[in-house]
Specification:
By secondary structure, the chain is of the alpha+beta class. It has 2 domains: about 300 residues, Rossmann fold (3-Layer(aba) Sandwich), CATH 3.40.50.150; about 350 residues, Neuraminidase, CATH 2.120.10.80. About 25% of the residues lie in helices and about 30% in strands. It has 16 helices and 39 strands. The strands form 8 sheets. An 8-stranded mixed sheet has the order 3-4-2-1-5-6-8-7, with helices on both faces. Strand 37 and strand 38 form a beta hairpin. The protein starts with a helix and ends with a helix. Pathway: tRNA modification; wybutosine-tRNA(Phe) biosynthesis. It comes from Piprites chloris. Belongs to the methyltransferase superfamily. LCMT family. Interacts with RNF144B/IBRDC2. This is tRNA wybutosine-synthesizing protein 4.
Length: about 675
């Protein structure tokens, strides 16, 4: 548990070094320096921002009181006191920090050794009395085990804590490491002992969804299990926990809601532009698995720092599910490492042959951007996998992620865009040539040739997380390249028509209400046009709009598709059309109460139904984002290949094997 404190100090320090948070004291307290990934920086930024937001609100609301106090539980190497003192916010406030005796000793030694820190504290008095390890006029460090309430109370009394004045308790990922009976007792003790008090809690939530399972497993492996989760699995349970233990007011929000509604828009944009970033799914999932809670009692005026500065639609309440879809592992495809990947593409190149290319995954026991292509072929009712032989293997492929692959004939597919790293320019186009005939029983037998292209349409293709869809105009075939993002533009809203034969960019008139810019959306061919659904919009917010680009006499027309009830905004899903129904598979949304399963939109009536995926037969968490899926209409089966991602600091999760989802019950019952 102490190790988690040291590790989080290093992460905060790295975030400060990159300009996410302004804090010159972290580097003095963190000890070792290590540069963390942009995803970690964002995660620690929103955590620091939430704590600061609530602490400063408390100090502001209580500034008319002659004396106030802050009690930070399990403070570790946090720099809160030094930051507040430095900017003059502690005129009449004493800060008490409690942690394990050895942690507090290390911190006290650091402070005494560093002039920059000791100068802010000033003279020290009365140290070494019982649990008091360090004692300045407005700063006390106490070495006590939080789970021993009688010892804690005694030590605080000796250090001069006053039960009668306004007090803020802070517990930043602390209580969850204690047994529930002890943390509950601490929450109740604080409410009973202090007539005018506030409590700030920041910790994890939603243990049972796929990301939550990876998160729990990580902390268990560190030997620091998260105890709160089983009893208090969601924000509502945490709220009831406080209201049932003596606190009269309590508000709570997850970090997606906090980021969107409590951080000003210009500050959101500043943070989003600090580093090249392309891990939106994991960022939003991390934020939906942490919450900030504030509880208070006896406070006049009432303390409510978690009031949104802007109103955002609250994603409360469970999603109504119309039924469930069974998931089953494809037994014949288990144990093939090349299928463990994300950000890849899978496409049917023949009725029973699927080509999977690109992405990030597992190769020779290492995690890396993948060069190998894989073929799945169905022979005698059974799927087999093989690694593709590539003619002229060279740099042309470029280890790409988030590209598109479109089959234009029985021996040709066009690869458009994709990227290597998010800071590099996007990649251009390639032809993939494969044989017209092949031996279905031996997928290893298929060879694919890569052919480089330098056509006039090149600017259209330097993008990723876009879509490329076949359309027909005046009997001619085109590929419609839409949206996505590039190294320069975080979100694109433009489009191009590529003539399939010549790959030249053709100007075709498009009228009607233009969809808002987006990437990570879905696009399907339908009746000669294109159906665009969802995606991530300009402010990194999921979109719930559906548009149909339909052919008219002189060009195309954008038409909004109304859905009832409205489609829950999502992105990073896949989509298929079957008999007038649009099927959306997985993705990421902000509804933390459940993960997206299958959504069926009836394109005639607009009726929109959500189905949960029943994963009871899977032994591992099924992450349905950054996956690929192929719909097999004859069997009404969806084959999901790959998916997953880098789960914050909890490790990379790759769905270990392809999964088949049987849709026969939901497609016939409509």
């Amino acid at each position: 548990v102490q190790g988690t404190g040291g590790s989080s100090a290093v992460s905060k320090c790295s975030a400060a070094a990159r300009g996410y948070i302004q804090d010159r004291f972290l580097r003095l307290l963190a000890g070792r320096r290590r540069r963390r990934a942009p995803l970690i920086h964002r995660g620690y930024y929103v955590r620091a921002r939430a704590v600061d937001h609530c602490v400063q609100d408390f100090l502001l609301k209580t500034q008319s009181h002659p004396r106030t106090q802050v009690l930070s539980l399990g403070a570790g190497f946090d720099s809160l006191y030094f930051r507040l003192k430095d900017v003059g916010l502690l005129h009449h406030t004493v800060v008490y920090e409690v942690d394990f005796p050895n942690v507090v000793c290390q911190k006290a030694t650091l402070i005494k050794r560093m002039e920059e820190l000791s100068a802010l504290v000033g003279d020290t008095v009365g140290e070494g009395l019982g649990a008091i390890t360090f004692s300045g006029e407005d700063y006390k460090l106490l070495g006590v085990d939080l789970s021993e309430l009688s010892e804690l109370g005694k030590a605080l009394e000796e250090a001069g804590l006053d039960n009668e004045i306004p007090t803020l308790f802070i517990a930043e990922v602390v209580l969850t490491y204690m047994e529930n009976s002890r943390s509950d007792a601490l929450i109740q003790w604080a409410a009973e002992r202090f007539p005018r008090a506030c409590f700030l809690l920041y910790e994890q939530v939603h243990p049972e969804d796929p990301f939550g399972r990876v998160m729990q497993q990580h902390f268990s492996q560190l030997n620091s299990a998260l105890h709160s989760l089983a009893q208090y699995p969601d924000c509502e349970a945490q709220q009831r926990r406080f209201l049932g233990r003596g606190w009269t007011e309590c508000s709570v929000m997850d970090m997606n809601e906090f980021f969107t509604s409590c951080i000003p828009e210009d500050e959101q944009q500043r943070v989003q532009a600090l580093e090249p970033f392309d891990e939106y799914e994991e960022w939003h999932l991390k934020c939906s698995h942490y919450f900030v809670l504030t509880a208070s009692k006896g406070m006049e005026p009432s303390w409510t720092p978690l009031l949104p500065s802007v109103t955002v639609p609250h994603q409360a309440g469970p999603v109504g599910m119309a039924g469930s879809v069974p998931a089953a592992v494809c037994a014949s495809l288990s144990g093939i490492p090349g299928l463990r990947r994300y950000g890849h593409r899978s496409v049917l190149i023949k009725p029973d042959v699927i080509l999977t290319t690109g992405g990030f995954g597992e190769e020779n026991g290492q995690h890396c951007r993948l060069r190998n292509f894989h073929v799945l072929s169905k022979h005698a009712g059974c799927w087999k996998a093989g690694c593709v032989t590539r003619k002229h293997p060279d740099k042309r492929w470029g280890e790409r992620l988030y590209h598109t692959v479109s089959c234009v004939s029985d021996s040709l597919a066009l690869v458009v865009g994709g990227r290597m790293s998010p800071s590099s320019a996007g990649l251009g186009m390639l032809w993939l040539k494969f044989p017209k005939t092949y031996n279905a029983s031996d997928p290893d037998d298929i060879a694919v040739e890569l052919v480089n292209l330098q056509p006039a349409a090149e600017p259209a293709t330097f993008r990723w997380r876009h879509s490329t869809t076949e359309v027909t105009f005046k009997g001619e075939q085109y590929l419609f390249v839409y949206g996505g993002r590039s190294a320069l533009e975080p979100v694109l809203g433009d489009w191009y028509f590529l003539h399939t034969r010549e790959l030249s960019n053709t100007v075709i008139a498009v009228e009607g209400p233009v969809p808002e810019s987006r990437h990570s959306h879905s696009a399907c061919s339908w009746e000669g046009g294109v159906l665009i659904a969802g995606g991530l919009g300009a402010a990194e917010q999921p979109l719930g709009s559906v548009f149909l680009l339909r052919e008219l006499e002189h060009g195309f027309w954008w038409q909004a598709v109304e859905t009832y009830p409205p489609l829950i905004p999502r992105y990073s899903h896949t989509a298929h059309v079957h008999e007038g129904k649009l099927l959306l598979v997985g993705g990421v949304w902000f509804h933390a109460s459940s993960v997206p399963g299958i959504t069926v939109i009836d394109l005639m009536t607009g009726l929109c139904l959500d189905y949960v995926i029943n994963v009871e037969h899977l032994e591992w968490p099924l992450m349905l984002h950054n996956h690929s899926s192929v719909f097999l209409p004859n069997e009404k089966v969806l084959l999901v290949i790959g998916g997953g991602g880098n789960c914050f600091s909890f490790g990379t999760h790759l769905n270990p094997e392809p999964v088949s989802l049987s849709l026969s019950s939901i497609l016939t019952s409509h």
